[in-house]
């Protein structure tokens, strides 16, 4: 199920800490008018209004498009052509002639990739797939048909790698795993071509995350460990504290899934040491607040059945992710899974039931499938009140 355009506006606005009054001041709306917009009033179908909202919230206009038959009044193709980067892409693709590419075009690609990463943390990846794929096509067109100096060419190739990694992540979040693998492979190739160890680490680390199986899967994937270790090596050479810590946590997750307790603990220790260091450079897209580092530690611990430690760390990740609603939901699902795995069925189902409506509101097929998998696992315990509550909410129409 997809949120309405008004619901998307509300979620993005709240994730930035902006009030309805503040948004209204930016688009010349009263607070009641903004409230009506967020409730799905006529203004939510007006492209002129949505352009103002997108500019005020600093998001691509395409993010406000709803993939729903109920909102057929909105022509999605117009939206994808209206965004700043998207409009440039359309003009480049249709021009039939080479275009001069400079630093401003590279900066626009980097900024769009950053926005896609941030929006996924708020609303989920399903609605971002087409936007991200369009931007990958745009940067590929620039590389193939543009005119640029060697220095700009390397920067553009690095930006392409980041855009491909962003596309891979939202496709992963949308449950489109084959597409995600393809984008990650292309990203790694582009990063290597540019000699960009930071972008290579990002692509390889995300690819390892994709290959790590769901909790409970036996054995894990040996390739996940190899990819994560390659990402860690690239990060050690080129990255700053947070990138090195993030890739070490990816390694810990893969090793935990393989049952390698010493290796996992070593990677966790390395992640925390890196996080406290000051060496190297982290680009803006590196998302690793302390709560994420702690949550990744708990995720790895859960893989090896260290449930008490995992509970403490996963709860800390939930508490520290309030500003990123979709990410917070992911940690809540991890926490619920950990409780179920430890045998505390009631507690795990209570976490899901208490937050069920919010979780189901995100456009993340990956998270919805995880909720469904947990619900099916606990169905045999339907005599437990918390299990019945969860199953009842899951069966109710949304």
From TrEMBL:
Organism annotation: Nocardia callitridis
SMART domains for the chain: HTH_XRE (SM00530)
Residue intervals of the HTH cro/C1-type domain: 9-64
Gene3D superfamilies: lambda repressor-like DNA-binding domains (1.10.260.40)
Listed InterPro entries: Cro/C1-type_HTH (IPR001387), Lambda_DNA-bd_dom_sf (IPR010982), TPR-like_helical_dom_sf (IPR011990)
Lineage: Bacteria, Bacillati, Actinomycetota, Actinomycetes, Mycobacteriales
Domain of life: Bacteria
SUPFAM superfamilies named in the record: lambda repressor-like DNA-binding domains, TPR-like
Protein name: HTH cro/C1-type domain-containing protein
């Amino acid at each position: 199920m997809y949120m309405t355009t008004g619901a998307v506006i509300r979620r993005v606005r709240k994730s930035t800490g902006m009030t309805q009054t503040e948004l209204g001041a930016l688009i010349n709306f009263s607070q009641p008018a903004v409230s009506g917009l967020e409730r799905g009033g006529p203004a939510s179908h007006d492209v002129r209004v949505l352009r103002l909202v997108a500019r005020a919230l600093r998001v691509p206009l395409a993010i406000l498009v709803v993939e729903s038959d109920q909102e057929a009044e909105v022509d999605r193709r117009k939206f994808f052509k209206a965004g700043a980067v998207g409009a440039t892409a359309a003009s480049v693709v249709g021009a039939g002639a080479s275009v001069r590419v400079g630093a401003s075009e590279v900066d626009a690609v980097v900024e769009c990739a950053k926005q896609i990463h941030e929006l996924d943390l708020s609303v989920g990846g399903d609605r971002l797939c087409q936007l991200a794929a369009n931007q990958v096509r745009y940067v590929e067109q620039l590389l193939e048909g543009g005119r640029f100096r060697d220095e700009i060419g390397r920067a553009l190739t690095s930006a392409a790698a980041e855009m491909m990694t962003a596309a891979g992540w939202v496709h992963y979040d949308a449950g489109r795993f084959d597409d995600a693998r393809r984008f990650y492979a292309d990203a790694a190739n582009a990063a290597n071509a540019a000699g960009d160890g930071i972008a290579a680490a990002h692509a390889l680390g995300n690819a390892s995350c994709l290959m790590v199986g769901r909790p409970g899967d036996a054995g894990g994937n040996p390739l996940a460990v190899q990819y994560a270790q390659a990402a860690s090596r690239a990060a050690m050479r080129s990255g700053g504290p947070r990138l090195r810590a993030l890739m070490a946590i990816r390694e810990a997750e893969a090793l935990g899934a393989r049952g390698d307790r010493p290796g996992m603990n070593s990677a966790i220790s390395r992640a925390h040491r890196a996080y406290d260091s000051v060496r190297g450079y982290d680009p803006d897209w590196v998302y690793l607040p302390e709560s994420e580092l702690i949550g990744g530690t708990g995720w790895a611990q859960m893989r090896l059945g260290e449930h008490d430690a995992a509970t403490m760390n996963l709860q800390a990740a939930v508490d520290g992710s309030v500003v990123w609603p979709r990410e917070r939901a992911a940690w809540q699902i991890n926490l619920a899974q950990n409780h179920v795995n430890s045998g505390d069925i009631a507690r795990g189902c209570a976490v899901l039931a208490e937050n069920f409506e919010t979780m189901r509101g995100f456009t993340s097929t990956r998270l919805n499938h995880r909720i469904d998998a947990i619900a099916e696992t606990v169905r045999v315990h339907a005599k437990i009140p918390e299990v019945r509550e969860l199953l009842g909410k899951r069966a109710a129409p949304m």
